[in-house]
Amino acid sequence: MTKPNAKSNIENILTDTFGRKHNYLRISLTERCNLRCTYCMPADGVQLSPKAHIMTYEEIYTIAKEFVKMGVTKIRLTGGEPLIRKDASLILEKLASLPVQLTLTTNGVVVDRFINDFKKYGIKTLNISLDSLNEKKNEEITRRSYFKKVYQNMILLVKEGFKVKVNCVLIKGFNDNEIIDFIKLSRDLPIQVRFIEFMPFDGNQWNKKKLVSLEEILSEVDLNFKKENIIKLKDALNDTTKSYKIRDYKGTFAIISSVTNPFCDGCNRIRLTANGHIKNCLFSSKESDLLTPFRAGEPISVVIKKAIQSKRKIRNGMDTLDKFNQPELHSNNRSMITIGG
Ligand code: SAM
Ligand code: SF4
Q1: Is pTM beyond 0.90 here?
Q2: Pocket test residue of 27, 31, 33 for ligand 2, highest count of atoms within 8 A of CB
Q3: CB neighbour class for 237 (10 Å; exposed up to 12, middle 13-18, buried from 19)
Q4: Which of 26, 92, 101, 269 is disulfide-compatible with 74, CB 3.0–4.6 A?
Q5: Is the pLDDT of residue 1 over 70?
């Protein structure tokens, strides 16, 4: 009888029933934030988990280590705002000791305080959120006044040699008239501007009419640039983006079309919320509590395997655009701020 191969058994835990291997773990460090983006959280805030239910830095590290043993090679820290955790530096230090590509998604407000940490802990790329290039509009969408700081921090990151991706959630009638201005940012800055289709989450007043689709973004691009100057770039299987470049621009732009053109076939992502629950899909309201068995000293591989095995093929069953018209399919989901985008 042949002995089972221990390594491949471990790796199999992260392979779902459609053969998708999950090697990319997104960890939310906190449900809190120093901004209040309208598309991410309701105006009256969210019910926060009790502090004792939030993973400590040791727990984050030990759980992440387990995932790495199972085949995770990339970890993204997110939130809420990951950099407002008091122990953010310590978490970066601990996770940097694992054999993974470590990165983070941030609103950029306090990035300047972390430049040395990022360098020390091998962070090479960062995603920074910026939804309008107009100070007033930025204030409206974030319900806070940090536009200048965020813009300066984005430039600082570029100057310091980091690869920067700028995330911009487009909302019809609000910032869709800035698509070209955002793309023009990539003329002199070697950044990737990423337009994200607005997605429905609890309390964010989503409505299909507010969506700016991939198709609409591309028509706007077609109207403003000569065809021969719009270059389609190659996307990797696991990319969530469809990437483009304007000829002679230093940077690129890309579209994340989670609503009109999902990219679930190549999904390699698994999410861990700040209170230690696995979410096997951004659109799934079901969660698997990993932290309780972990704290009880039970093996967490069983929970992880079950969560991965129950992952559905496309957007937790919202396989057509029409299904977005059924609020019961997406309105029970947490607000994005407590998931970690
Ligand atoms: N605070 C950090 C930030 O803003 O980058 C990290 C957390 S935030 C939840 C992660 C990403 O999710 C951000 O780029 C944000 O724009 C995106 N996001 C939040 N709500 C969204 C929604 N309803 N639709 C699309 N993207 C959303
Ligand atoms: Fe905070 Fe990021 Fe959500 Fe804005 S998108 S409220 S910055 S977590």
Answers
A1: yes
A2: 33
A3: exposed
A4: 101
A5: no
